[in-house]
Structures are given as structure tokens and as C-alpha cells.
Amino acid sequence: MQVLREIAERRTTRGFIDEVLDQETIDRILEAGRRAPSAKNRQPWRFIVIRSQAVREKLYDAAYQQDHVGEAPVIIALCSTNVDYRMPNGHDSYPMDIAIAASFMMVQAEAENVGSHALGTYNETIVKEILSVPYSMRVPLLLLLGKSRHRPPLGERKPLSQIVAYDHW
């Protein structure tokens, strides 16, 4: 298993071609999210897969009409089913749990030659209304999936020496 290649090669897709993703590919991406770790193994998520053109157009509007949202043939709304759990360090667990699940999905998407974009710029209230998400739940992230129109160059990454410390700050 060579996971680092997918991690190193993954890019954020900002343009998608009009090509349907097959169900088996979508299922493998969802399975990657399902297998992600979560605080106390609560698995506080529900993944809503949006393929309908009509619903995607509404999400496009809720996401301030960003072109890549309108182009993505698949949008997955990553919803949290447990927004009240706080970890012992005082932080809410659901943003981290959802982010880890999304990361696993993006790595699997890269392995499938599918472009991905983790999106946080949208009106959550409107998204919840469009998707009939219960009031007590949150939608911290939308994941856009599809074949990339073009592969942007890899972004510069800081060297480990600038971001890693051992035993103290």
C-alpha cells in the first residue's frame, strides 16, 4: 500500500468536466469515509450524496455561485449527528471527526483519479434546508467530486524543518 503517493499528488480541483462518476467509485470513496477514525469511535456522521442536477443547482446558489460547485457532478454533504460531544480537552469533536472522514475520502478519490474539493464557503442554513437536514445537526463541509478539467500544479509545501518541533515548541 502506497498511500503517501495519493497524499502527495492530491490537489484541490476547481474545475470539473461533465462526466458522471460510476456508483462503484462513489461507494469506495464513501467507504473510505466510513472507515475514518472518530472521537470515541462515535462515527458521528451522515453522508448525503447529491447527484441530482436540480439539487446541485440549489447548492450552487447556497455556495455563493462558485463555478466549481456548479460543475461538480457529485457533492457529498458531510453532516454531523452529534454536535454536543466535547472531548476532554474542551473542543467539540464533530469538526475534527468530519475533517478526518473528508480527508480519507479525498485520498481515496485521488486513488480513483477523481478530483476533490473540500468546501466550507456556503450558507449552512440554506444547505440544511435544501437537504432536509434536521435542525440539531450540522453540515461543516461539502465535498465536491468529479473528473478534473485540468490538474493544477502542486502547491508549495513548507519543509518539515519549518513545521516540526520535538519535545518543545
By DSSP (H or I, 4+ residues per run), the number of helices equals: 7
Our estimate of the beta-strand percent is 15-25%
Task: Tell me the number of strands.
Answer: 4
Quaternary state of this entry equals single chain
The whole-number mean of residue pLDDT values reads 95
Share of helical residues: 25-40%
Order of helices and strands: HHEHHEHEHEH
Uncertain segments are none
Largest sheet: 4 strands, antiparallel
Task: Output the structural class.
Answer: alpha+beta
Radius of gyration: 17 Å
As laid out across the biggest beta sheet, the strand order is: 1-2-4-3
Tell me the overall shape. globular
N- and C-termini, Cα separation: 33 Å
Describe the structure.
The chain is of the alpha+beta class and 169 residues long. The chain is built from seven helices and four strands, in the order ααβααβαβαβα. It has helices at 3-9, 23-34, 53-62, 67-71, 94-111, 124-131, 160-163; strands at residues 45-50, 74-80, 115-119, 138-146. The protein is globular, with a radius of gyration of 17 Å. The two termini are 33 Å apart.
